[in-house]
Design brief:
Layout lengths: L8 E2 L9 E3 L23 H4 L5 H8 L5 E3 L2 H7 L7 E3 L1 H7 L4 E6 L10 H13 L4 E6 L3 H13 L2 E7 H6 L1 H9 L3 E5 L5 H9 L7 H13 L4 E3 L6 H20 L6 E5 L4 H16 L5 E7 L4 H4 L1 E6 L8 E6 L21 H8 L4 E5 L1 H15 L5 H20 L4 E6 L7 H8 L10 H8 L10
Parallel strand pairs: 5-15, 6-7, 6-9, 7-8, 10-11, 10-15, 11-14
Antiparallel strand pairs: 1-4, 2-3, 4-5, 12-13
Helix pairs in contact: 2-11, 3-5, 5-6, 6-8, 9-10, 11-12, 15-16
Length: about 450
């Protein structure tokens, strides 16, 4: 179909919204490695995980074989408040760049949480409610996940306890207040509230925190409070499953106009957005039905893919969670307090780690000053103020479009615009005032962290 016939925004109807989540693990030849018990080194099964996670979510976590998992009607009804989300043809950006490339982005920021995180938050809260639980605990980095879970819990009448990475808690007071609007309690992490928080503060006095620290506190709180379970906003298999609604919708919209992307780009912290966006396209690649180039974009200050080790590691800094095999910088690694809080995680989703290890996708690390340059350029021509996390994908999408300008290739680029940046004005202020710096860990710092990776039989 001719380009001029493709609308600026492609909206699906509610009836076209996916009725199932797509489980990419079903099509993976090499499945992600199982979670291990840190005490025994043995794979963890359903009963092992019950003290921490909701029962149905454990089943989804362990299911490597079911390709399509039905979305309950109650969750689909909630989705209809803000889904289907638009697929946007970035005509204005293409014109500004004077590129022959065709650029599309899937916009997930059209809800109060400001991001894609609500897709999994409502699912996890729903299964907690179905189980008869009183409430849930969680961590949040930039604040989008905490906001999303607060919204979902308010809707379903669940209590919500959020541990927010300290630097984000201080940088984004209004994000914290949105969570409190929805009834959540919000604690800066690491804190003196938990045993693991006190231990982290003793080892790292004055630390600005990390997602790994906040996870440790949230897990401890859930396991010591009757009627609560822990829920996670990224990394886990179940989260990527729920987020597949992003990619499935994007593919339906593109298929309506006969468009096939050449390059698919997503920001990568723990992997929820990237995994959700690429899932149906990766499924085609795994089945040999089509080929795509996938690019994960991470901050140079926290380069899990590009400089990490593919190894078993703790998912949290306090070392209270199971061991997961992933690309990791070491659970003791605490990234610099950059302004993409949602990407400040030491590891990567086991699903994405396995796909990357198998050569099915690429990764690139970018400095935050270059990210904010791209964010501002995008905002000025496309009219959306993007989140710093999303802007990592924007940076590389622009770079790829400019490469097409040099070569004359008319490639089609799809990227994920995960959310809005209206609570990130401190970051934009520092960028405009010339106070933003680029922090990149040294090889020595990373080696010191790698030296503390857990010893697992069969792991180098």
């Amino acid at each position: 179909m001719a380009a001029e016939k493709i609308p600026y925004k492609i909206y699906l109807t509610e009836e076209e919204m996916p009725r199932t989540w797509y489980n990419v693990r079903a099509d993976m030849k090499n499945k992600p490695a199982p979670l291990l018990n840190p005490g025994t080194g043995q794979p963890m099964g359903y009963e092992d995980l019950r003290p921490v996670f909701c029962d149905e979510l454990i089943r989804q976590e362990l299911d490597n074989d079911t390709r399509e998992i039905p979305i309950p009607d109650e969750i689909r009804d909630f989705y209809k408040m803000y889904r289907p989300s638009p697929l946007v043809r970035a005509y204005c950006l293409e014109k500004k760049l004077q590129t022959p490339a065709k650029i599309y982005y899937k916009f997930e920021g059209n809800n109060t949480s400001g991001s894609h995180k609500l897709n999994s938050a409502i699912a996890q809260a729903y299964y907690a409610k179905q189980q008869g639980l009183k409430g849930v605990t969680t961590e949040t980095g930039a604040g989008q996940w905490g906001t999303a879970l607060s919204m979902a819990c308010a809707y379903l009448g669940l209590d919500c306890k959020v541990y927010m990475v300290k630097c984000s808690y201080e940088q984004k007071p209004f994000r914290r207040e949105v969570m409190r609007v929805y009834g959540a309690s919000v604690t800066p992490s690491p804190s003196m509230e938990t045993e693991v928080g006190r231990r982290i503060l003793a080892e790292h006095p004055g630390t600005t925190g990390s997602l790994g620290c906040a996870i440790s506190e949230a897990v401890e709180k859930s396991t010591t409070t009757p009627g609560y379970r822990y829920v996670l906003g990224s990394v886990l298999n179940q989260v990527l499953l729920h987020q597949s609604v992003i990619g499935v919708e994007a593919k339906i919209a593109l298929d309506k106009y006969g468009v096939k992307p050449d390059i698919i780009i997503g920001c990568a912290g723990g992997g929820s957005n990237l995994g959700g966006l690429i899932s149906p396209f990766m499924g085609q690649k795994l089945r040999g039905e089509a080929d795509y180039r996938f690019i994960a974009v991470e901050p140079a200050s926290c380069p899990s893919f590009t400089r990490g080790r593919f190894a078993y590691d703790f998912c949290d800094t306090g070392m209270v969670c199971p061991l997961a095999k992933m690309y990791t910088l070491g659970s003791n690694f605490i990234p610099s307090a950059n302004h993409a809080g949602g990407l400040r995680y030491h590891g990567m989703s086991p699903v994405l780690a396995q796909l990357y290890h198998d050569g099915l996708m690429e990764a690139v690390a970018v400095e935050q000053t270059k990210v904010f340059e791209a964010a501002e350029e995008f905002a000025r021509v496309e009219g959306i103020l993007p989140a710093p996390e999303s802007s990592h994908a924007i940076r590389v999408a622009i770079d790829e479009a400019l490469r097409c300008k040099e070569t004359g290739e008319e490639k089609t680029i799809l990227f994920g615009l995960t959310g809005t940046g209206y609570f990130d004005m401190v970051a934009y202020e520092k960028f405009h005032d010339g106070l933003m710096t680029d922090t990149v860990p040294t090889d020595e710092e990373l080696e010191a962290s790698f030296a503390r990776l857990p010893k697992v039989p069969g792991q180098d």
